[in-house]
From TrEMBL:
<keyword id="KW-0443">Lipid metabolism</keyword>
<keyword id="KW-0479">Metal-binding</keyword>
<dbReference type="InterPro" id="IPR042099">
    <property type="entry name" value="ANL_N_sf"/>
</dbReference>
<keyword id="KW-0460">Magnesium</keyword>
<dbReference type="InterPro" id="IPR025110">
    <property type="entry name" value="AMP-bd_C"/>
</dbReference>
<dbReference type="Pfam" id="PF00501">
    <property type="entry name" value="AMP-binding"/>
</dbReference>
<feature type="domain" description="AMP-binding enzyme C-terminal">
    <location>
        <begin position="456"/>
        <end position="530"/>
    </location>
</feature>
<feature type="domain" description="AMP-dependent synthetase/ligase">
    <location>
        <begin position="33"/>
        <end position="406"/>
    </location>
</feature>
<comment type="subunit">
    <text>Homodimer.</text>
</comment>
<dbReference type="InterPro" id="IPR000873">
    <property type="entry name" value="AMP-dep_synth/lig_dom"/>
</dbReference>
<comment type="similarity">
    <text>Belongs to the ATP-dependent AMP-binding enzyme family.</text>
</comment>
<dbReference type="InterPro" id="IPR045851">
    <property type="entry name" value="AMP-bd_C_sf"/>
</dbReference>
<dbReference type="GO" id="GO:0046872">
    <property type="term" value="F:metal ion binding"/>
</dbReference>
<keyword id="KW-0276">Fatty acid metabolism</keyword>
<dbReference type="InterPro" id="IPR020845">
    <property type="entry name" value="AMP-binding_CS"/>
</dbReference>
<keyword id="KW-0436">Ligase</keyword>
<dbReference type="Pfam" id="PF13193">
    <property type="entry name" value="AMP-binding_C"/>
</dbReference>
Length: 543
């Protein structure tokens, strides 16, 4: 089927078939956009020719340091040029990039380094203390440390490790990049929260990264030479593939280390930023910014927002300020955004502002690189009625779905059951096929765009000598979208205060994972003893 009667001599060969990889985008940009500004960060301003040379030096230095194809190279870096360079330089030597969340605590970083078996880690000087604590907790060989100070932000080197610029100096700017022989080769290993509390290693391939980077400009209505502000952490789904995408368009990557309203307004005004992505907390930050932090600008700034549906009130306030908001949705397992709330002017142009905002808060339809995104009953895999009321699970199928979970074939098989990736997110589908999330089946809390495992927090609280039972749910929060709210039953004869339990958790978890509210009460349970979290979510909404 689909073949000619005689296909003799019509085989694949190097002239007509090249494995897809986002590395090709920077190789192309070096030739046709060589003098255009590729990366801007304060006084650090590099053309595409210079950017390519620095990424080549990194790849060469890694190879000389003994990093072989298939080895894992980790980073613990904020949104600075070295993190962008790692997105090209690490795979350009055949290695696999593992970007680690800079906000994680030492125990989780240790687990990730052990599980991924990273051979080398690039670390921001400010993150050195937590990394050193993590190395002390590792059970396997510790990776080599390359320290990345940040003079633009006044972050000085410790003097204890080889510096990034010195490491680059050992590399060859003419290094011949190691391109994949097979586009299914792994490009990145990214760890995401799960219901077990331990993060799972999501393995992604060159093909998916290429197609995501190629498709998103269509969804974002991009033309040549965008100026993109890095608000989405580059450690989060590889910055939604946007660092790989920029060379495709000859765009400028404007690095933003500290996400503040002033920094964003300054970048829009001074660097001419045209696009950025971010969680709804970023929109709230801009809406509520004091006048002293605001700057005037002429361009309309296109924004992809994801992580939690933005409040319609926020959308109604921010768009008149010069921002056009598009809601997108995805997971680490889908390379970041995989759906878009494509605007239907013919249907929605006449909507009242509050109705327009409500429509824009939908997660939407499949992006171009996805084959199918829909809502089904997970038990039967039947399509739910598209009536905006019947709930089911969001299912994905397409080229931008992960290879699977690293060293976890059981979880991989479960996620891919019946030929679709099961997101675990509960949603409805409207008559126009647009998807809208209704709940989170896995009880993951999304706070400021970061995924938090409720089970991990519950396990931490249960380690307190006074706690008998603990259940953690999402509590709506105006600033962060959602925050963890803990419901606790104490052991008979024991006592604890809210402040005590919050402090106990903060000493063991990253700050963003710490419960912001603790409620002492008997937990609602089924006849079999299962805690009924849906009741707790209802209570948390009114606390």
């Amino acid at each position: 089927m689909g073949w000619l009667a005689d296909e003799t001599g019509l085989d694949r060969n190097p002239a007509n078939y090249v494995p897809l990889t986002p590395l090709s985008m920077l190789l192309r940009a070096r030739r046709i956009f060589s003098e255009r500004l590729a990366v801007a960060y304060g006084t650090h301003r590099k053309s595409y020719a210079e950017y390519h040379a620095r990424c080549s030096r990194l790849a060469s230095a890694l190879a000389q340091a003994g990093i072989a194809p298939g080895d894992v190279v980790a980073t613990v870096l904020p949104n600075i040029p070295a993190q962008a360079e790692a997105h090209f330089g690490v795979p350009a030597c055949g290695a696999v990039l593992n970007t680690i969340n800079t906000r994680l605590e030492a125990g989780t970083i240790a687990y990730i380094l052990d599980h991924g078996e990273a051979r080398l880690v690039l670390v921001d000087s400010q993150a050195l203390p937590v990394l050193r604590d993590a190395l002390a907790l590792m059970t396997g060989p510790a990776p080599r440390i390359i320290e990345v100070p940040d003079p633009q932000a006044g972050v000085r080197a410790s003097g204890a490790h080889q510096l990034y610029e010195d490491f680059l100096a050992t590399g060859d700017p003419a290094f011949d990049w190691v391109m994949p022989d097979d586009e299914w080769e792994s490009i990145a290993l990214s760890y995401t929260s799960g219901t077990t509390g331990r993060p799972k290693g999501v393995v992604t391939h060159h093909r998916g990264a290429y197609l995501s980077a190629m498709a998103q400009p269509i969804s974002w209505r991009m033309v040549l030479y965008p100026r993109y502000l890095t608000i989405v952490p580059l450690f989060h789904c590889n910055g939604w593939c946007h660092t790989w995408m920029m060379p495709l368009l000859g765009g400028t990557l404007v690095c933003c280390r500290d996400i503040t309203a002033k920094a964003i307004f300054d970048a829009i005004a001074d660097e001419g930023v045209t696009h950025f992505g971010g969680a709804p907390i970023v929109l709230n930050m801009l809406v509520n910014a004091p006048d002293a932090d605001r700057r005037a600008f002429d361009q309309t700034v296109e924004v992809f927002t994801a992580g939690a549906p933005p409040a319609p009130a926020t959308l109604a306030k921010i768009e008149p300020m010069g921002f056009n908001i598009t809601q997108v949705y995805g997971l680490t397992e889908t390379y970041g955004p995989a759906t878009e709330c494509t605007w239907r002017d013919e249907d929605w142009a006449a909507l009242a502002p509050e109705d327009r905002a409500a429509v824009k808060a939908r997660q939407g339809v499949a992006m171009p690189m996805m084959d199918d995104i829909t809502v089904m009953a997970p038990e039967t895999m039947d399509q739910v009625p598209m009536d905006g009321a019947q709930q089911g699970e969001i299912m994905f199928r397409g080229n931008a779905v992960m290879k699977g979970y690293y060293k976890n074939p059981q979880a991989t098989a479960e996620a891919f059951k019946h030929g679709y990736f099961h997101s675990g997110d509960i949603a409805v589908q409207h008559p126009d096929s647009y998807v809208q999330i209704a709940d989170r089946a896995k009880d993951i809390i999304i706070s400021g765009g970061e995924n938090i495992s409720s089970v991990e927090i519950e396990g931490t609280l249960l380690a307190h000598e006074a706690v008998s039972l603990a259940a953690v749910v999402a509590k709506p929060d105006e600033r962060w979208g959602e925050v963890p709210c803990a419901f606790v039953e104490l052991k008979a004869g024991h006592a604890a205060t809210e402040a005590e339990l919050i402090a106990f958790a903060r000493a063991r978890l990253a700050g963003f994972k710490t419960p912001k509210k603790v409620v002492f009460r008997e937990l609602p349970k089924t006849s079999t003893g299962k805690i009924q979290k849906f009741e707790l979510r209802t209570i948390a909404k009114d606390i």
